[in-house]
Write a structure and sequence with these properties.
heterotrimer; A alpha/beta; B mainly alpha; C alpha+beta; A: alpha/beta; Rossmann fold; six-stranded mixed beta sheet; four-stranded antiparallel beta sheet; B: mainly alpha; three-stranded antiparallel beta sheet; about 10% strand; elongated
């Protein structure tokens, strides 16, 4: 049974001692998308993913994955695939052993798919996982997760330590699978270039809080880069400044607006995803107020 | 899940199988010699007054057999501890340390099921290994155990004849603490408990080496405390009281230079319960209290020469008036199997309890 | 480098310090009691036939004292093994397993220096810990050792210093064992590169060696003495006091060397053949099956008179006791030699470690 929502979080928070690793997280990631989870190191991406996969229990709030509680039973576990950071694998077990592991522990295991992938990747079945290169191990972990035939695949910075070619291959395999299996994906990364290639939904996490989320198309349509002579900013209420920079004579503003900007004083340009994300990454907890109130839900 | 548990446990299983095979070969090779001298001593046919022949047989246990007797006891103490350390502590701690729990807990089996299958299968292997070892060791040592029970409890051993190290040691009846833990079904309980202790330490500490250290210390402490504080009371001990024959009293001066004190020694009544485990052995007055002071007539300050016959006679009369008795509290030899089963049961229950603690802790979702 | 070694070793050092403190407090609490019981028993002033005093002393020891006595042997057997397992095996194997050797070997110290400093400092800590424990155990058990010496081996449980369990647990031998077990652990870790298998291998190897050495090596470290003396008449009859039955013929043994470590003790006939069916005990030797030409039957209440023809048969056999033994005075020489050997072995293993690591095979 497919759900319209991949991950739904309401007021989700996780505290360690006095520090909030994730605070007041409310988001709705729709199914059928490849959602990129972006943020600097320590922003709470891994915590959010751990909560979504049921590895951690929340301190406050709730999270629902595909309409069910995370890791709440074999059925729920079968619907979600997870590749953890550093793509762990059993060093003493061979590649073939890992496939057998998947086959024994998953009811919907697609052995043919797994074998085909391993062959394509050129992995030697009898080789111990501890002797694989980082890229090979990542591919093995991805194969394990894909052959499980989940509805949602969650990946925690899986390509961070891969070389450009391995990264490209990984994303290729991922996108093929998305097309073939009608998979929803949540992939966390701080490699914007890679996310730009694959993601059609974006969540930006900074300082343990969600700064912005939305379909990429929609985000790009509602953000504009305004350049104009330097003066005190006075913009209508429907236009919110996300980031600004000033030289002696010129101001550059990145604004978010549901309506087109018609002030002739400004030159309006489209914003690239990278600029958009970088602008939001500049928002710390002492920065701008939450401007999502302006945004109508897609 | 069963396949995965087996696949991960395979190296340890092979080690255990090899160790068991080596033990089996060594014990099987040496037992015929033991049985031969046991039969030659006339013990199988002996019905009454066997204590002397039994002593001679045990005295003659020499060389390799002597080493194997005590080595096998040491092995039965170490085996559960080793299983707790090398099978229990890394079971879950190693997965968490290596991060592979993120693979295991995101397949389609719940954590509880994963934990219970691992605990159950490897725990069963631990109990089976301990059981096989105990079977082999108990079978091998049965001539010596039988002789020790006939010889009256504690027999001194001298390795006689042939090459080998000559040393003197106790050979003990089955009920004595040292041997009790190395026979019968008790090692199964210890193995299950040590294993469960290891897994729990691993789950709580999440690091293998500290978990191993904690398991070792905790298990050692418990194994020292139980025989001394718990086991004597598992079944109510038997009591025997016999009057002291004060006519056998004699005076012995102490040899401390410059002291004029001495002591009265009385021959104790014959406590003949072969194979019994003596818990306490005291001299009491009719009220049941321990004797704290001798009657006045028995305090002499005469030095080495000692009291004269009349003075000693007065002392004897005074002692007779007090009606002293020797009170022995003991567990009879027949209680071996009941005590074994009760103790094993307790350890198995504790092991199961620890298993529940593990499963509960794993469920709590505190390990990202 | 010294600071780094200390910092990495700190948890184990604290554990060791706590353990040593616990042992010290137990020893301090119970030691004086044993010492005063020893003094009160009259043993210090005794020069001959001290068996009774020794027996009184030993039976007067409380259950706790006995438990501690035998427990101290266990402690001194386990301590080197534990140090090999928990200090030695992870020393380098853990670094390789977690990848931190890539940090350590790319600072400005060479691998060789890094290895030597770690081996040296932690090895020294192991030896020092074993030394402290041995000191405490030796001090605590010295009254019992003296009593064992004076008792002439007639009280079972009172084991003279030279005999294996006490020899291994006192004096300087534990220092050698600790150094060796530690070095064994580190070498296993370097060769196997994984901590848990290294621990298992260390345990098995150390256990095997510790069983073999007292039995096969130690008796020959110094050439044993030989003793041969004839058995004299009158030969006695061992009778069971309770039943009056004859168990066997009692042969009084001439060998009496207090505290000796007897390696072999047999009764031989004039042809040099060993007499069968003889059980050597503390009080003498007992022949359970009469030789040819005798007629006494074991078990029958024959009494000394029935021994008459056996006596002449035995006398004609010219029986001798032949003993191979190490004298009590050889305790310290044997200790030093054995410790020296173990220390040399430990150094050799250390060199193996350094050589292996220099070979640049661990990425």
């Amino acid at each position: 049974m497919t759900n319209a929502t991949a991950i739904e979080a309401r007021g989700l928070g996780k505290r360690y001692g006095r520090r909030w690793a994730l605070a007041d997280c409310t988001l709705t990631i729709p199914a059928g998308h490849v959602a990129g989870l972006v943020g600097p190191n320590g922003a709470g991406k891994t915590t959010l993913i751990s909560l979504a996969t049921g590895m951690l229990a929340p301190t406050t709030g709730t999270v629902e994955v595909l309409g069910g509680a995370p890791a709440s039973g074999p059925g729920q576990l079968a619907r979600v695939g997870y590749v953890a950071q550093d793509t762990p694998a059993y060093a003493a077990l061979s590649v073939a052993d890992h496939l057998r592991l998947g086959a024994r522990l998953n009811p919907r295991w697609d052995a043919a798919l797994a074998q085909a992938r391993i062959k394509e990747l050129g992995l030697e079945p009898r080789q111990k996982a501890g002797n694989l290169s980082g890229g090979q191990r990542a591919q093995l972990a991805l194969t394990l997760a894909l052959a499980k035939r989940p509805e949602l695949l969650i990946l925690d910075e899986p390509i961070a330590s891969l070389d450009p070619r391995a990264r490209r291959e990984f994303l290729q395999v991922l996108m093929n699978a998305v097309a073939e299996q009608e998979l929803s994906v949540v992939i966390s990364s701080h490699q914007l270039a890679d996310l730009e290639r694959v993601a059609d939904y974006l969540v930006v996490l900074v300082d343990s809080r969600v700064r912005i989320e939305g379909a990429v198309e929609h985000l790009l349509a509602t953000h504009h880069l305004l350049t104009g002579p330097r003066r005190a900013t006075s913009l209508p209420a429907s236009q919110q400044v996300v980031a600004e920079s000033h030289t002696g004579r010129q101001s550059t503003l990145l604004v978010r607006s549901s309506e087109p900007v018609i002030d002739p004083a400004w030159t309006v340009e489209e914003v690239s995803l990278e600029d958009l994300v970088l602008a939001y990454l500049g928002h710390t907890s002492t920065g701008s107020p939450d401007i999502r109130a302006l945004e109508a839900r897609p | 899940m069963i396949w995965l548990t087996w696949r991960q446990f395979r190296p340890q299983a092979i080690t255990a199988a090899v160790a068991l095979a080596v033990m089996a070969i060594v014990l099987a090779a040496t037992r015929p010699g033991l049985v031969a001298s046991y039969t030659a001593a006339g013990l199988p046919a002996c019905r009454t007054h066997c204590a002397a022949i039994a002593s001679i047989f045990i005295d003659g246990v020499g060389g390799l057999d002597h080493v194997l007797y005590f080595g096998s006891i040491a092995l039965m103490y170490l085996a559960p501890a080793l299983m707790g350390l090398f099978w229990g502590a890394p079971l879950i701690a190693r997965e968490v340390e290596a991060g592979t729990h993120r693979v295991a807990w995101n397949q389609s089996v719940t954590r509880i099921r994963w934990t219970l299958v691992k605990l159950g299968l490897v725990g069963l292997a631990a109990v089976a290994t301990a059981g096989l070892l105990s079977l082999m060791v108990t079978w091998w040592a049965s001539p010596i155990d039988h002789a020790a029970s006939l010889a009256g409890g504690s027999v001194q051993v001298a390795a006689g004849g042939g090459a080998g190290v000559h040393s003197s040691w106790y050979v003990l009846a089955r009920l004595e603490p040292v041997v009790f833990a190395a026979r019968g079904v008790a090692p199964l309980g210890y193995a299950a408990f040590a294993f469960a202790l290891g897994v729990t330490a691993g789950v709580l500490l999440r690091r293998t080496l500290p978990a191993m250290a904690l398991t070792l210390v905790a298990f050692a402490v418990i194994q020292v405390l139980v025989p001394n504080l718990v086991r004597p009371h598992l079944l109510p001990p038997a009591h025997v009281t016999a009057p002291l024959n004060v006519q056998t009293a004699s005076y012995h001066p102490t040899k401390t230079v410059g002291s004029t004190a001495g002591e009265i020694q009385v021959t104790p009544p014959n406590f003949a319960r072969p194979g019994a485990w003596v818990l306490s052995d005291v001299i009491v007055t009719p009220s049941g209290a321990r004797l704290t002071a001798l009657p006045k007539a028995c305090t002499f300050t005469v030095g080495v020469a000692g009291p004269g016959p009349s003075a000693l006679g007065d002392c004897k009369s005074a002692l007779a008036a007090v009606h002293l008795r020797q009170s022995v509290s003991y567990q009879p030899a027949s209680r071996f199997w009941p005590l074994q089963w009760i103790e094993t049961g307790i350890y198995l229950v504790l092991a199961a309890g620890l298993g529940c603690v593990c499963a509960w802790q794993v469920r709590r979702r505190r390990t990202p | 480098m010294i600071w780094l070694t200390w910092r990495q070793f700190r948890p184990q050092a604290i554990t060791a310090a706590i353990a040593v403190a616990v042992v010290a407090s137990v020893a301090a609490a119970t030691g004086p009691g044993i010492a005063s019981a020893y003094t009160a028993s009259g043993l210090p002033g005794c020069h001959a036939s001290c068996a009774t005093d020794a027996s009184n002393f030993f039976t007067g020891l409380s259950r706790l004292d006995l438990l501690l006595y035998f427990g101290s042997f266990l402690l001194m057997y386990l301590a080197p093994a534990l140090m090999g397992l928990f200090w030695g095996a992870p020393l380098i194997a853990r670094e390789v397993e977690t990848g931190t050797h890539r940090i350590a070997w790319n600072q400005s110290v060479t691998r060789t220096r890094w290895t030597l400093v770690k081996l040296g400092l932690v090895g020294l800590a192991a030896v020092a810990t074993a030394g402290l424990l041995s000191l405490m155990v030796t001090w605590w058990a010295s009254p019992i050792s003296h009593a064992a010496l004076l008792s002439g081996g007639q009280i079972s449980g009172l084991v003279p210093r030279l005999d294996p369990p006490v020899f291994d647990a006192t004096g300087v031998a534990p220092l050698g064992y600790a150094a060796f077990a530690f070095a064994l652990g580190v070498t296993a870790g370097v060769l196997l590169r994984r901590t848990l298998p290294a621990m298992a291998v260390t345990l098995v190897a150390f256990a095997v060696i510790q069983v073999l050495v007292p039995n096969l090596v130690r008796p020959h470290l110094l050439p044993p003495d030989h003793f041969t003396a004839p058995l004299h008449e009158p030969f006695g009859v061992n009778v069971n006091a309770a039943t009056g039955q004859v168990n066997g013929i009692g042969l009084a043994r001439p060998f009496a060397k207090p505290g000796a470590w007897v390696l072999s003790d047999v009764i031989v006939t004039s042809s040099g053949a060993q007499l069968p069916n003889v059980a050597i005990t503390f009080s003498g030797a007992e022949l359970t099956v009469p030789p040819k030409g005798c007629t006494f039957t074991s078990g029958a209440a024959a009494g000394p008179a029935g021994l008459h023809d056996c006596s002449s048969v035995l006398a004609a056999m010219h029986l001798r006791e032949s003993v191979t033994w190490q004298p009590a005075s050889r305790f310290w020489p044997l200790q030093c030699i054995e410790t020296g050997i173990y220390l040399v072995l430990a150094a050799g293993l250390g060199w193996v470690c350094v050589a292996q690591l220099r070979r640049r095979r661990t990425a």
